[in-house]
Each structure stands twice: as C-alpha cells, then as structure tokens.
Amino acid sequence: MECLEDIMFPNVGSTRTDRDYPVIMHRKRERSEMNGVSSSGLSREERRRRRRATAKYRTAHATRERVRVEAFNVAFAELRKLLPTLPPDKKLSKIEILKLAICYIAYLNHVLDV
C-alpha cells in the first residue's frame, strides 16, 4: 500500500520511517479487533468490564452521575418556580411537578384559544 507522500513525491525516495511502524501495527490491531478479540485474547466486552472495574473509572463515573443528577434537580427547581400552587411554597414531588406542568400548559393553551 502506497503512502500519500510516495504518490505526491515519487522522486524523493522512501519517506517511510520507523516512526510509521506503530501506526501500521495499530491499524492491524484495529482490523483484528473488529472480530471482537484483541491480540491479548480478551473480547471487547471483557476489556470494557475490566476497565470499568478500576477505581479511577468508578470515581469518574460517580462524578459524572452527581453532575447529571444535580442538573436534573436544578431543571425541576426551575420548572417548579414557573408553576402556580397554593400555598406557593408547597413542596412537590417530581411527578407532581410534571403533572402540574402538563395541566398548566393545557390551561394556558385554552386561555390562548378563547
């Protein structure tokens, strides 16, 4: 297989060096891994399972989950501020907030239609 440099500069001689060897080996490894088994003999699922078992991965995953849950809670708090309730400071569950939002949107649509 010819390198792009070999095609563009045919009179310059071989432009391949030892630094190209890892790239070539990486491509061969990718092709062999397409079959689901790496050169180490582990399947993709097994490698994923082992990677997820590391403390570093679990810590990063827990951090991502905390950020996700915090964003979720902030979104519900913002939605809650927009909904009229009696009393105004009544604590609502997430499902109550969603149901109230649906009813409030339907009410606003009705008001606009009239």
UniProtKB/TrEMBL annotation:
Keywords: Developmental protein, Differentiation, DNA-binding, Nucleus, Transcription, Transcription regulation. It comes from the Eukaryota. Residues 20-59 are annotated as: Disordered. The keyword Zinc does not apply. Residues 56-108 form the BHLH domain. CDD domains: bHLH_TS_HEN1. One of its GO terms (biological process) is cell differentiation. PROSITE patterns: BHLH. GO terms for molecular function: DNA-binding transcription factor activity, RNA polymerase II-specific; protein dimerization activity; RNA polymerase II cis-regulatory region sequence-specific DNA binding. Pfam families: HLH. Residues 47-59 have a biased composition (Basic residues). InterPro entries: bHLH_dom, HLH_DNA-bd_sf, TAL-like. Gene3D superfamilies: Helix-loop-helix DNA-binding domain. PANTHER family: HELIX-LOOP-HELIX PROTEIN 2, T-CELL ACUTE LYMPHOCYTIC LEUKEMIA/STEM CELL LEUKEMIA-RELATED. This is BHLH domain-containing protein.
